Predict the structure.
Amino acid sequence: MNALPTLALVGRPNVGKSTLFNKLTHRRDALVADVPGLTRDRRYGRAHIDQHLVTLIDTGGLRGEFSELTPALEQQAEFALEEADGVLFMVDARDGLTAADQEIADRIRKLGKPVLLIANKMDGVDHNEAIADFSTLGFADSLYISAIHLRDLAPFTEWLDKTPLTETTDSEGADEDPDAIRVAIIGRPNVGKSTLTNRLLGEQRQLVFDAPGTTRDSIAVPFTKEGKSFLLIDTAGVRRKGRVEGVAEKFSVVKALQAIEEAHVVILVMDAREGVVDQDLHLVSYAVEAGAGVLVALNKWDGLSSYEKATANTMLDRKLNFAPWIPVLHISALHGSGVGLLLKEIESIFTAGAFDFSTTFLTKLLIGFVEAHAPPAVRGRAVKLRFAHKAGAHPPRIVIHGNQTKSVPASYMRYLENGYRQACRLVGNPVHIVLKTGENPYAGKKNPLTRRQRLRRKRVMRHKGR
């Protein structure tokens, strides 16, 4: 299984990094892995660049005006550069080449990773002067854009086509059962991920995660329960012991995101005593965007009082109101209570994600949804949704054909998603719906009738209407 290549977006403050990040990821707040505190000022998102799919990291500015946060922000940018397979180095064309740009370039060059130099804010700047200025940095590949007005992604595609970005390959899982259910255990440090892993495997496997010489950050462990094959992808932050420098700071979000990309089902482990934090929500959002089935395991449940349990449930319901379809199990990984239900729930989510439904059935459901609640009209014209068919599984994907589908509001899309999820019992699964407008067969063609014939036809139709 290959993980997505990762690109770090770096440069001085205010050169337009976040603008480009939002453009490439089509950013919506619920779908960007913002991780406050743990990975301050690093944002993670999935970017579709034509046929390429990458994980993009937005970082704080390097070498800006000094403040009390500067050391922390620069450290986070350094972590992003360490995690990345390639670098998007952004400069400000209006400011021209600065000493800070040259210093950042020297630091990037030492990494030996592929680099794309991006000169931003080119509107109103002489192109030839900008090229002459920034070419002195010596990077082979460069791009001159205005991120705020970016429309054409072809230059990014060309660079990705020719750049061999390293992809992490899970060799341990390569020869395992192809029908195995791939399960990723994710969550913040010290919430009980490794304890849960050992409990599910039925043996102490912690030595695997601390093995000297290990260079990968996730381990795929095959196991079988009651005749069913599973592949457990642990994301406990596997590093050489000598490289661990503070678990909270070195926790690799990228490896958790890569595990999500590989998994059929994701178990998000939370500490019931600490409640839900923003990082948990962003991991859930990323899993939904990636199309993985999601299950929340509220760990250390047996140590709570009745009042603490009620408070934890109330908070979780409020925080997860954007995805009420996600199952929540209360467990104690240490003592084993509730863990037996996890595998059964995983199997249910996986089976539902296979999404084995016919076009006839999906279209019949669509007609029922529209009859119960029709989409809003556009400029007085009704939006017609005609038929639906399966486009894929894991996650369930549905294509709906009709007219004026680009005008269907997001609220109606959620209505359709919830309708299909309930009717098809898609427990724990996100539903991805794509709307397509049928082409008008007469579009672009001249009307073969003369003006006199068209007027005559109108008179006939009016007469028939009487």
The CA atoms of residues 197 and 203 lie 9 Å apart. The chain has a mean pLDDT of 80.
